[in-house]
Amino acid sequence: MTETDERHRIRPGLAALGALSGVLTGFAALAVAELVAGVVRPQAGPVVAVGGAAIDRTPSAVKDWAIRNFGTDDKLVLQLGILAVLALFALLLGIVALRFRRSGSAGVLLFGAVGAMAATSRPDSTGLLDALPSVTGAVAGAGLLYVLAGRLTRRSEAAPTQGAPLSDAGWDRRGFVIMATAAAAASAGAGALGRSLSGSRGQNAVISRRNVVLPAPASPAAPVPKGAGLRIPGVSAFTTPNSDFYRVDTALVVPKVDATAWQLRIHGRGVRRPLMLSFADLLRRELIERDITLTCVSNEVGGPYVGNARWIGVRLADLLAECGVKPPSKGGPADQLVARSVDGMTIGSPVEDVMDGRDALLAVGMNGEPLPFDHGFPVRMVVPGLYGFVSACKWIKDIELTTFEAYDPYWVKRGWARRAPIKTESRIDTPKPFARPRAGTVMVAGVAWAQHRGIDKVEVRIDDGPWREARLAAEDTRDTWRQWSLAWQAAKGGHTITVRATDRTGQVQTDKRTKTIPDGASGRHSVVVTVE
Questions:
Q1: Other residues' Cβ atoms within 10 Å of the Cβ of residue 219
Q2: pTM for the whole thing?
Q3: How many CA atoms does the CB half-sphere of 310 hold within 13 Å?
Q4: Contact between 316 and 361 (Cβ < 8 Å)
Q5: Higher-confidence position of 125 and 12
Q6: CA separation for the pair 453, 90 (Å, rounded)
Q7: Peptide bond into 431 cis (omega under 30)
Q8: According to the model, what pLDDT value does residue 80 have?
Q9: For residue 324, what pLDDT is reported?
Q10: Distance separating alpha carbons of residues 406 and 94, to the nearest angstrom
Q11: 10 Å Cβ neighbour count for 532?
């Protein structure tokens, strides 16, 4: 090794301290950014902004894979991934700063620029102020890295002579330890304060939800028929508890909207009388209560993203008619209803479906209580018979009447279908895949759904045997799922159990397997078991 190479070499011990400086810098930058975001708004924080931008730019197939493999934890996995990448980036910048202090600090500023651009380009951005958390955090981080790197490269009186390699023998130990410790403590405090501020910003929303008293519906739902819920272990409950109801959306931070400040605007093509409604206005209107099963288009055959709840809300068709809207079948100029959420999501629904007599709702309640924040408080759309990505806008704030030709909402821009009626599907809940039941009578049971058409029949096949008709539980309405069961005399050995449903139009669930993209998965669910 030449004398020049030796002088430019960074010893391992010093490199480790440089990496530590980078990690501390990253922690400080994020903490300061979170503190400022607590003042500006939580959605402007760099991790949330970059995560949201990543979701928007991720191919649909990758999103579908994430939902399939991580379920409702997909957002947590994304945020952890972003933090891991940032930590690695910060670590490398810390090492670079040992030789090039200004370049290391400039790298931190680059990180801030990326966060700022992501925050200001989000659909729900409120303007340049959203850049402030990322910019402030980056400036604080850049300054800290410059100072820490200086402590590591500053020579003490006991340091080697001029021209010797950067080593761990001559750095300013006392200055570095004091600065690093103070930075870590200050960052922890800033992060905690930022989280507290973010939480306090949602307190008005929490209080407003707590104060909501849902009026008695003018048209209550009929009692769930006796026998609609089978008492078979392992079968999904007929009514899905709010805490167990699936959640699939793109919001990294669940919007917390103050119901007392919420407003909904209805406008667009064919709207002769635009309408602006407050939450109190909705509660004063005639409310209806209905049991409706919702299904996510990302639900694979046999998947978990389907649930049934009792919803209370205002008929959407009544509101549209009040605004002078007519469906296309009656001469209306708009064939698409675009619902916009407070987080910038856009969802397009066929006007004809919303106004054809089905119980399409602006829902304010779910299973006897105000909507949970995760499920759209204060108001969301619920339309039976359509997959959620073309109907179930949560945290809704705006309804525009337009056409499919004139506007592509969020998911259509990413390759999903414009119209997506729910497909006839069925699922085996018990026995579970790879179960090992004992020989004899084994109860095979599950649920089937074909919202707004209803389930007419469910059949089960063991291996390559004949289809056998299962016993259907009592039907609540054609907009809810239906439970089914079959007593199987199981013989020892490995077996494949397959189920198919027939809806009330006579359509038999297809055996053709398709992916969820672009308009929902199809195929028949089967499980493999070993009877002992």
A1: 12
A2: 0.85
A3: 16
A4: yes
A5: 125
A6: 55
A7: yes
A8: 84
A9: 97
A10: 50
A11: 10
